[in-house]
Specification:
The protein is 39% helix and 18% strand. The chain has 188 residues and is of the alpha/beta class. The chain has one domain: Leucine Aminopeptidase, subunit E, domain 1. The longest helix is centred in the middle third of the chain and has 18 residues. It is built from five helices and six strands, in the order E-E-H-H-E-E-H-E-H-E-H. A hairpin with a 7-residue loop joins strand 3 and strand 4. The structure holds adenosine-5'-diphosphate.
Length: 188
Amino acid sequence: MATETPQSDVSLTQGDITKAQVDTIVNAANSQLIGGGGVDGAIRRAGGDAIEQACAEIRKRDGGCPTGKAVITPGGNLQAQYVIHTVGPVWDDGNSGEPELLASCYRESLRLAADNGIQSIAFPSISTGIYGYPIEKAAVVALTAVNDFIKEGNIAPKKIQFVLFDEATHKHYMDALSTVFPKSETTH
Ligand code: ADP
């Protein structure tokens, strides 16, 4: 029942996600789970070999991770114990299932976190870098997906943080936050 679900605290901050003080950080990965640039490169550099080894095992076992899905690995040298790797959609024209796939990234990551008993999680802005998803649209999809997941009564991490790298991205998420979330559920 929804009333039995612990309330999650959703917050936004600007910064480097590799430094986030959380149990788990989320990586905007590619479907081969092979090291890339952007946030993926930063997480792998900070986490070290343990992440690559775990990704290689998943590649061998499952062939990678489909778009919209998520897998979990250890965090290696990161402060975070785990990394959840999710694969965002590449932006095409917006009519190729991009919003559904992007929402699925957030849902699947939260589900995987809950399944692993994770209490705190940090998300980057998935798909809005190299994958080209317009930030103002992605911000609404991301925050709506998180809000829906909580409202549906799913078990969710108590602390859900978005760590946005640059000022423009942070601002778009701030704008989206005020429209998507009732004030009582949020802290900034
Ligand atoms: P995608 O391929 O899903 O678009 P990118 O890594 O290219 O992923 O970009 C996703 C977002 O992550 C962008 O907003 C980018 O600025 C941001 N980003 C890059 N490095 C970091 C970091 N260290 N911490 C948080 N966000 C980051």
